[in-house]
Design goal:
binds fe (ii) ion; eight-stranded mixed sheet; alpha+beta
Length: 356
């Protein structure tokens, strides 16, 4: 079978406080804030932060919906860990770094022969740094130098009560191959490797299912890169051919196009096609992440949206600095149809402005 999936495009989590997320992801995980926008579904404005590598590369993007309005429950049927690649020999630095920040962490451990340290976000989600090779661009802060900084994703862990059906989905629908088993972890990889190419299924047969809604303390979904609109259309057809009939419409997420399906283990899986220009569509490279950017079809609601979002301070570590690759800024021409001629679904949110 021709594999459409290239690796992880982004991972999306629901922290609680927006400011806690800004502080943890920038100062503790050393990520670059590359975009501030809002959730494009629903009637209540919720921030949508994009965290990434020094050059906001595909394979490095973690996105946050700070959803302090409602708690979620972490459990099986969810992504349980985001795994970042860090240079060989840097796990000890990260262990000390997490100690200095007084955050809950695992200490240095080993899985499939690779050293890693796992750390807990203030809202409860787990992240880990794994010693593994990656060519993505590091983002340097005053505490995290280039020789230890993260280089995009190594992969992710999914918690599942049963391996078989989720394995079948990864292999048949997404083209993964199984690499092996280490204790309760089953490892899969996209052929060709690259950033974010590893998925570990964590077999937790007695763990209660996690919530599927947006809710603080949980991962919401994982997105895999299929690169083009044509591949996205083919992926939807493959889902339907296999019997995953509940695949969504192809949605316009402005920076990319998206297709969602609920996988058998419970994890919401998105596939994305890249829009030319990506994160540079609406702001210059040196300004990435510094201002709230709304898709054009939300601009008329900007004042209402701003009034309902919690005040935040972008950390000093995310100010633009020289050394980041400067991509050309393309003309702003968001498409109404995919390049394959399939109409895109856009959410025209009617925000509630009088409920606070
Ligand atoms: Fe997504």
């Amino acid at each position: 079978m021709t594999t459409l999936v290239k690796g992880i495009h982004h991972l999306t989590q629901c922290p609680g406080s927006a400011q806690d997320d800004l502080d943890f992801c920038s100062r503790v995980l050393g990520q670059r804030l590359v975009k501030q926008t809002v959730l494009m579904d629903g009637r209540i404005p919720i921030y949508h932060f994009y965290w990434g590598s020094g050059d906001a590369e595909i394979g490095s993007i973690a996105t946050s919906f700070p959803y302090s309005r409602k708690p979620g429950r972490a459990g099986s049927g969810q992504v349980s860990v985001t795994s970042y690649a860090v240079p060989q020999g840097s796990a000890d630095f990260w262990n000390g770094h997490f100690e200095r920040h007084e955050v809950e962490h695992s200490g240095v451990q080993e899985r499939f022969g690779l050293r890693f340290v796992r750390v807990r976000h203030p809202a409860g989600m787990l992240f880990e740094v794994v010693e593994a090779d990656s060519d993505l661009t590091p983002w340097v802060t005053d505490e995290i130098s280039a020789d230890v900084a993260t280089r995009g994703f190594f992969g992710a862990v999914m918690s599942v009560r049963s391996i078989e059906e989720q394995e079948q989905f990864l292999v048949e629908a997404l083209g993964f191959r199984k690499l092996g088993v280490d204790g309760s972890y089953h490892r899969f990889e996209t052929p060709g490797g690259g950033p974010g190419s590893v998925i570990d299924l964590h077999h937790e047969p007695s763990r209660p299912p996690g919530t599927w809604t947006f809710g603080a303390g949980t991962y919401h979904h994982i997105a895999f890169n299929v690169e083009t609109d044509e591949a996205l259309v083919a992926q939807k057809a493959l889902y339907e051919e296999l019997g995953y009939t509940d695949a969504s419409d192809i949605k316009d997420r402005f920076y990319f196009h998206s297709l969602y399906v609920r996988s058998p283990g419970g994890v919401l899986v998105e596939c994305t096609a890249n829009v030319p220009g990506g994160f540079y569509l609406d702001e210059a490279p040196e300004d990435l992440g510094r201002h709230l950017n709304l898709p054009p079809w939300y601009e008329e609601k900007r004042a209402d949206i701003l009034a309902m979002l919690e005040p935040i301070t972008v950390p000093e570590a995310n100010r633009p600095r020289p050394g980041v690759v400067r991509a050309a800024r393309p003309a702003l021409e968001p498409a109404a149809v995919t390049s394959a001629g399939i109409p895109l679904t856009r959410t025209k949110a009617e925000f509630i402005t009088d409920h606070l």
